[in-house]
Amino acid sequence: MLNYIWSGLIAVSVLCALFMGNTADISNALIESGASSIQLILTMAGIICLWSGIMKIAVESGLTKIFAKIFAPLLRPLFPRLNKKSDAFQSITMNISANLLGLGNAATPFGLKAMEQLHTLNDRRDIASNEMVVFVVMNTASLQLLPTTLAALRQSYGSSAPFEIIVPVWISSACALTVALLIACTLNIRQGKI
Predict the structure, then answer these.
(1) DSSP conformation class of 5
(2) Cα–chain-centroid distance for residue 19?
(3) Distances 24 to 36, 53, 67, 126 between C-alpha atoms, Å
């Protein structure tokens, strides 16, 4: 449905430009937006490749097991039925680590892997387990200590201080995570599953 709305808006814009004789503006906008889109894609691809590579090295070197041990005391109450040595727990910790560094795109493969592993541990295939719900809530709210991707975007658009937004990011992501976890845990407690 949203695609139809966007297509309709674009068609109306082009027709208005043709009717008003602004075809040169349409051509310039197409060329400039295409060039800036490619530049943004290349900037983001470099960052994603770098951090995805670092995360792959972390998995291969056993760093994920160290992260799992570090995060175990914090994550144990949220995932009481998960073994801290399980692959699902390690994928969750790597996802959270990447999100803490502001690397949402590098966190995505770990998040998908964690959800797949949590699904295999789920007794009921048609309903998400409590662990799956809590993980999705944590992943969506994602506390970011270092908003790397956002800073890279700000720098690519000419910001002289791309990290100056760090305190508001900390406050907003901490508030979102706290509220989301309180709601998820409250629902789980009401259902008697925590």
Answers:
(1) H
(2) 42
(3) 18, 43, 55, 54
Q: Which residues does 173 contact at the CB level (< 8 Å), separation at least 6?
A: 141, 142, 143, 144
Q: What is the rounded CA–CA span in Å between residue 194 and residue 186?
A: 9
The answer to whether the beta carbons of residues 153 and 97 sit under 8 Å apart is no
With the C-alpha atoms ordered 140, 146, 152, 155, is the resulting torsion angle positive or negative? positive
Q: Is the CB of residue 113 less than 8 Å from the CB of residue 91?
A: yes
pLDDT tens profile 8-52 = 877 887 788 788 877 777 777 777 777 778 877 887 777 777 777
Q: Give the model's pLDDT for residue 26.
A: 73
Residue 89 neighbours by CB under 8 Å, 6+ apart: 68, 72, 75, 79, 82, 83
Residues in the chain: 194
Amino acid in the structure at residue 141: A
**First-to-final CA distance of the chain:** 39
Phi first, then psi: give them for residue 91, nearest 5 degrees. -65, -40
Q: What is the mean pLDDT of residues 97-111?
A: 76
Is the model's pLDDT at 2 over the cut of 70? no
User: How far apart are the C-alpha atoms of 132 and 79, rounded to whole Å?
Assistant: 9
* Residue the block writes with tokens 């803490």: 100
Mean pLDDT of 110-116: 88
